[in-house]
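Quick one, T. Sequence first:
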Amino acid sequence: MIVGELRLLAPELSLLGFALVVILLDLFIKQKKVLAAVSIAGVIVSAGFTVAMWGAPSVAIFYGMLAVDNFALFFKLLVLVAAGLIILASQDYVSKFARFQGEYYALVLISAVGMMLLVAAADLITIYVALELSSISLYVLASFLKDQKSTEAGLKYLLLGAVASAVLLYGMALVFGFTGRTCLVCIADFVQGMPGAGLLNNPALLLGIILLAAGFGFKIACFPFQMWVPDVYEGAPTPITAYLSVASKAAGFAVILRVFFGALGSPDWLSLNWGMLFAILSAITMTVGNIVAIVQTNIKRMLGYSSIAQAGYLMVGLATVGMAAGNDALGQSGLLFFLMSYAVTNLGVFIAVIAISNKIDSDVIDDYTGMGKRAPLMALALSFCLISLIGLPPTAGLIAKIYIFSGAVQHGLLWLVIVAVINSCVSAFYYLRVVKVMWLGAPASEEKVPSSWALRTALLLCCLFVLLLGVVPGGFVGIAEAAARILGS
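Structure tokens:
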């Protein structure tokens, strides 16, 4: 039985196998570009296995420890797309650690394996093991440049991540102690049958939920657990900053949906309680992220605070899921579509930043002055993705915000949507400031900004998907709804 179930782990096992091949090849070959090609091949093979499983009946494998369903497959594809684009975009960056390219690509692939297991985890033990597998790889990648800022970023990420893991583990222990179970479905059955209504009548469960929210809050960088973001984003290699902002965040939201909706989604009073908790955290998170982003002069720090604000918008979807109390899948599908849109948009921004910052050797926003004349296509792509982050037409950001906000309004969260719309207007100030500097300023030099074909391909793919999601979103909405339907069933 167990051996037969291994075929359902083909995406993870194949990617892990390619990671090992990359490590071995690194010992014997001098042409390191081969390592990138092998890594991309691993991502493509793993994605092929994932797509082949789409639409198959949902099953639980390894004694219910992992779920194989459209919800997990959706997030696996999202992680693989992010990893593949990051590897492509890294071709202009790996010269900064030329001796360690094998380790770099292998760690990216191994962290992706951890995230793929995390989004499929259906048991508290599996969640914790998968979370640590992905996190440890990311701690190393954050400090990969080995300079002062990068080392500081890795150390802060490690120490604060260890604290968050401990808090999460305490929360899991309390939930296990209260229910006597670690399986999410079993926890759901136990909680549904509780005699007492109200969290105040069940203090152990209340504290467990708070600690779970805190532990996962670190993963998605929501208030007040966002303190690591600006320093880590600034100090880490720019491709890893992009990877953290997209893949890690997506995996975090996937596991939160699994735990809170799958295990703690009923009875209704429980769902409404944690839904309101996420609504309040959402409002604070987006406000703090946007206000602090305004005063940033470093583009990576600005995008760090922008990422915090975007987490606030995404949490509108979590709040909607809670307030809907399982009545429909609008909140879940809205959240999934927003994550899809945010992934390609934010990756596009960071890929353009990689190309420009590599040439000017600076992340200061003012040094981007006149980039529209020096690298018009790169500046155009960056401007287009920044406009999508604001939520203006004809981009993915507009459709994503309409989708997620309409669900919130339907379930009594109009006040939260008003806060989110105001915050979107505030965010336009610092996003458009970058656009203004690039197109209206006089360039300090007439020298062009070169980039590899791999980076240009990754950037083109991101911009293309940002446009498609904004102009013809129907097919992508259908994919999000199919994945959300499985979770709610």
